[in-house]
Each structure stands twice: as C-alpha cells, then as structure tokens.
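Data deposition worksheet. Section B asks for the primary sequence of the deposited chain exactly as it was used as input, without tags or linkers unless they were present during the calculation. Section C holds the resulting structure in token form. Section D is free text for depositor observations; keep each observation to a single sentence. Incomplete worksheets are returned to the depositor.
Section A, Depositor: J.P.
Section B:
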Amino acid sequence: MAETLPELFLLRTGVFITSQSNGVKAIGKRGIIMAGDVPYHTIERGGGYVTLPKGVFHCTMERQPEKKYRPIFRVQTTGEYGHNVLNDRGKLAGILIHPSNYPHDIIGCIAPGKVMTPNGVEQSKKALQEIFQYCGGFVVGRKIRLHVSDL
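Section C:
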C-alpha cells in the first residue's frame, strides 16, 4: 500500500516577471501552490536557472543551518520521487521551498507568498508557516508529496 502523505500542488502560470538588486536583473516565473483548497502565489528563478520538471516529488521538512536554521522543504534528489536535476557544476541541485520575496533572492528554489506584488510576493514566511500547518505542522524529517504541472 502506498504511503499517504500530505500533498501540495504547484501550478506554473507561464507568467514571467523581473526583479533587480544591485543593478542585476533577475527573471522570475509565477505560479500557485495549493495547500488543500488554499492558493498561495509562488515565484521561481527563470532565465536558465535550475527548476523542477513537471512530475511528482517527495519533499522533507528540514532546518537550514546556513540560514539560521529556518524551516524549509527540501525536494528529494534521487529515487522514485527524486528530481535528478543537475546544477551548473554537474551535481544534484538542492531545490528547496523556502521564504523569499523576489526572484533575485532565489536560485533554483520555490518561494510561496500570500500577496502577489509586481516584482515578486509578500508575506512569504507567513505563507510557508501556513503550508507547514496544512501538512500537519513542522516536524524535521516529515515528508510530503509535491505535484508540479503547468496551468
């Protein structure tokens, strides 16, 4: 019998935006992540950066030590529900779901937000906290299933 996991659905809209930091422009891709019947806006980095392909992936709740142990989801890299996406160094990319507001703040990750802005999202930390609650609360090691598709 298949393991029953909380499920999130990332739907990419095909809409692109730009943000800028220190004179460097970044392309972002808009989407929506559904936690049950609650939609959250998302941004991902575009313009040749790593990104998840369409499919179904397992993610694990972790604390990210290099960012003051902030809670995140890490997308599984190998196995039946792994992404197998390589970064520019030929290694498996570390793709996360974490709080962020602008495309220039993320590399290959997904950032949810409660409010869409012209250049990104706002209330990203709050959105991620609510997504953790939907998934049964933040517990290091807890797994969820992420479905990625295009609208």
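Section D:
The first strand starts at residue 7 and ends at 21.
The chain has a mean pLDDT of 95.
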